[in-house]
Specification:
This protein is an alpha/beta fold. It has two domains: 33 residues; 258 residues, Metallo-beta-lactamase, Chain A. The chain has nine helices and 17 strands. The strands form three sheets. The chain has an eight-stranded mixed sheet. β9 and β10 form a beta hairpin. It binds zinc ion. Zinc ion (ZN) binds next to α3. The site of zinc ion (ZN) has 7 residues, from α3.
Amino acid sequence: MKTGTAVRRKTVKRRGSLVLAVSYCIISLATGCRALGMATPPAQKSLSVYFFDVGHGDATIIRTPGGKNILVDAGGGGKKRDMGRDVILPFMRAHGIRRLDAVVMSHADSDHIGGMRSILASSVQVGEFLDPGYPHTAQLYDDILTMVKRRPQTKYRQPCAGDILDWGPELKVRVMGPVKPVDMGTNPNDSSLVIMLTYGAVSVLLTGDAGKSEERDMIDRFGPSLRARILKVGHHGSRNSSSEAFLKAVAPEVAVISASGREGQPKYRFALDRLKAAGATVYATDYNGTLTLTSDGRGFRITGATRSAPVWKGKALPQGGGVTHEPVRTQGALR
Ligand SMILES: [Zn+2]
């Protein structure tokens, strides 16, 4: 027979165990239920778009609010400097990105896909590979296609203007170009895959190297749907892109130029003049370094790795959380 003291001791012990179990559950809930084996990576609440400083070329990574990662172009690639190996893969490692849900090739010029070989040769998983399908004769393009074919997990796709891409329910992603069927007769730049990414009230238009001809096609096909608060300027700001009509249709608050400024003379002065006239605030990778755009779907913010002040501060500043910068003098290197 148990004594009263023994029964009390057991009750105290049981209560102690109950308190421990409840505390364990509370701690587990507070730490995201890790201890219960229910850990899921927290969804990123914001959209981030990185416009990498890859000299003359384009390379962009999109991190969606739902946790997907998309690569649009990969800069140039050579033995000395390979943007895939030297810029994109180190960035992905630093951010713990092991899978690209989609790799988009705007077009097959070497300053856009040269760095892609390193990505495709790595252990990074690729869900989908998007190609405008221009029959480019370059060996580099053949190499890339062969590498994609050797990846059975990667879906190859040639999207058409008007297609909606599924990069998560929180985003609307629409293919805006090329509008006309691609063929050898056209300039490959004018067969660039153009993508409109919309998160809430914030749209980003990625144009590859689309020239005035493709811009005209997009105006005719999409009209007011081309409006975007952020424009990745076509063809590194060359004189053959960013027509007045296109800038009027897009009406960007912010323009991002991906280019190299050689000896202080930017090649993008033609686009810069037109963007100034259009009232856009202009950033450029040769001046700002890699540019990071973040958005909560209402406003957006842009910061540069080298400096965050824009090349040109336009009339239309980013709304709802955007950064206000002082204008940069227009004499000298950046006119
Ligand atoms: Zn280019």
